[in-house]
Records
---
Amino acid sequence: MLPLKRCARLVFNPQAPAALRRLPRYVRDWRAWTRAGGGRLRLADAYPCLTDAVPHTPFDAHYLYQGAWLARHLARRRPPVHVDVGSDVGVVSVLSAFVPVLCLDYRPLTAHLAGLRAVRADLLRLPLATRAVPSLSCLHVLEHVGLGRYGDPLDPDGPTRAARELARVVAPGGALFLSVPVGRPRVCFNAHRVLAPEAVVELVRPLTLVEFAWVDDAGALRGPAAPAAAAGAEYACGLYHFVAP
């Protein structure tokens, strides 16, 4: 019998309709494998992957481009240490290959890598001295603060308070790399918020915006430009590079 977990993966999946349409091909390939001399297949070992036969490699545009954007900035700047708050751990792990990274997260990372130190921290109360961090990132995190999704307390002012805390710790001349969903402002409870692109600049005053780019609704990387260029988006990803005075 096909293991229950694998059955559930097929049924309770956003791609389930496409997967079911491709099930006949899976059965044909199963039979063809045996005829081709591949050996007998056991049903208990079956692991149907039915949605991967596509012409191009799929990717999440927000996460791919924001990680590439941050990595390129750090490769140019080469800070002595980089602090990240809550960003995608795949990106953080790669960054630690060429710059020491302190990874702060409400749900701390338990992986062990040279160049990477992970510590539990609350974005509203960072365990960092004021104006002490030369290089700081927080990618696709601010929009979640205070919605309770990750076990944090409910707080309607979460993004405002979190942004002030990020601005507090950046050293003079230091950089903050920030990304958030931008476009039509709204709360999509309890997943995330979408912020007006120009409002994000005000959240981290007195830091100065030196670069803005964005991933548009079609998944294309745009900019540099002014934040207003993304104002008409529905669910874009704003990429902000700030510098502290």
---
Amino acid sequence: MNQSMLTTVRGQLIVSCQALDDEPLHSDFIMSRMALAALQGGAAGIRANSVADVKAIRATIPLPVIGIIKRDYPASDVYITATLKEVRELMAVAPEMIAMDATFHQRPGELQLAALVQHIRKEFPSLLLMADIATLEEAQNAQALGFDCIGTTLHGYTQETQGSKLWHDDFAFLRQVLAQCTTPVIAEGNVDTPEMAARCLALGAHAVVVGGAITRPQQITQRFTDAIRSLRS
């Protein structure tokens, strides 16, 4: 198994460069420039959504990429690289790593998570796989299935964890996962400040992913305007 990307990003920042269809920066060109800005700022890797964005980013910068495809399926709330179809689409542009929803939620398609991982390992043996999880039990399951790394990406975004933030109680959830899992853990999800990112790494995270706080200007602007409005209330 090629572990070079995990070595590259160890102790470093990965920047998530994503803009969905309804967002003002939705464009593979713009995301490639975001990735270039991240490179110039010292990022060690990029996380990107869609074949078009991964392709544009890989053509622009030399950093390793975590590829995903967000796609809605009926009767399933799993939408991050949910099926083998998305994996095969991404492998046309060959990101070093692919992340997928590794929660216990009902998946679309014929393959459930364990069978999906097994199939990917057989078809793409050199591909690194990242498990996006929301709970400790899902992290432990991902480790048992042989994922190369575990991301706290979905903590706070699932029904079971709604209302929780990764940073609550001095990153208590991250500390639990680190204590229970020997697989590299990548901190991701509501890491909003440089101090939070540094704290994740100090606690033992293998790397940290930051997205909206760097690459979604509408969210950054709203944080400022919310703070200003609070002064008037």
---
Amino acid sequence: MNFPSTRLRRLRRNYNLLDLVSETRLTVSDLVYPIFVTFGAGKKVPIEPMPGIFQLSVDQLAEEANEIKSLGIPAVLLFGIPEKKDSAGSRGIDSKGVIQQAIRQIKAEVPDLIVITDVCLCDYTDHGHCGVIDGDTVDNDRTLNLLAEMSVSHVEAGADIVAPSAMMDGQVGAIRRALDSSGHSMAAIMSYSAKYASGFYGPFRIAAESAPQFGDRSSYQMDIANRREAMIEIQQDINEGADITMVKPALAFLDVLREARDRFDTPIAAYNVSGEYSMVKAASQNEWIDGQRITLEILTSIKRGGADIIITYHAKEIASLLS
């Protein structure tokens, strides 16, 4: 295998050859599109740091769901913004809550669109933390019951997959037991297993109106420096009954994603988060980069890194290129 008998450029002569021998195939069926659902009616509110992304009221979801389906995107991930918040995040469990209404609306309009719901209290609590507060800390075990109740309410509204993101120890097991005991043994769990305490979430917290009112989330989200710990988190979630695990964020943690893929056989999702999206959009709008090309490169790197599922705000804009 020495030059000139081996010439690696032979298979780079044109795009047809490049495509023929491509090692990684990014397809529209890999993608999940996140949606922010807000209270009220007639709302399509632009999210300033995330160009092209909106807060949508429930009555706007029929059109949105049909567009997503027409693009070939198989699934959505829903985040809710209630009209009122309290210390226990009770609106997240309400059967008439914004997410429960959203699930029913989407399923009535596009029944075969996969609906995944975020299961966490941060969107619904007045303090912005992901669980019940005891003093100045989050009470892990008291939070578990609320996450389980929320998951059951989502599935009863029609959700296909619940996605616990609170990073409470034991959350997957608590949710699995609650779903099974309520007759929903076929409802799947996609756990945010390796969710890091990252600065890349800034735009999301504006979009979901979920910034913590004091402190930060480092006592329950993972230290960005740790990789071995992520493997423990993923294994624990699998042991507790997770059907799909997740690495979040994606781009800055491709090494974690790769190791997880090498070690575990369950499907793995990666979340191409808001800060990653906003950086591309800002640089593209300033004509510093080719936004479309960079987006494809980023999403391909996430797929190459080992993701079976990519949650990304770029899904709609990139879907036509992948079809």
---
Amino acid sequence: MSITIHQASVPVFVQGLKGLKGVLAKAAAHVETRKLDPDALLKARLFPDMFPLLRQVQIATDFAKGCAARLAGQEVPAWDDVETGFGDLIARVDRAIAYVEGLDPAAFDGAEDRDITLTRRGETSVVKGLAYLQTQAQPNFFFHLTTAYAILRKNGVEIGKKDYLGTA
């Protein structure tokens, strides 16, 4: 039995985003219950040269929506990175879930062989859809999800593996 590129991408992104939403909700409750400055957690990093929590969430949602759009043959929607609080981040995650789920599964037909053109740091490259999903988009998506989770866990938010995994 084979699976479609839609099945290999959209449900994976949605599950990861739902897990992210859950850990962000627990972080917001953690901050409120303990009367902490939310900005301290939103700006927390694992290491000085890494992005803070706020940016990790933005990048994770960008990879989910960007990959899904490209595989569906759509223009990637541009979202301004204007979030400043947990409510804003949760709303962004909800927006990403709605966008990814709203793409027509039929638009993904043939995406594994579709040329995906990427421009990063001024350099353009072309890669096939399946290779893009497996070697670039999903690994980056999971890197930023995991880093967001790790920042929260390191800073005392009571979350575990089940929270990270979200619901299937």
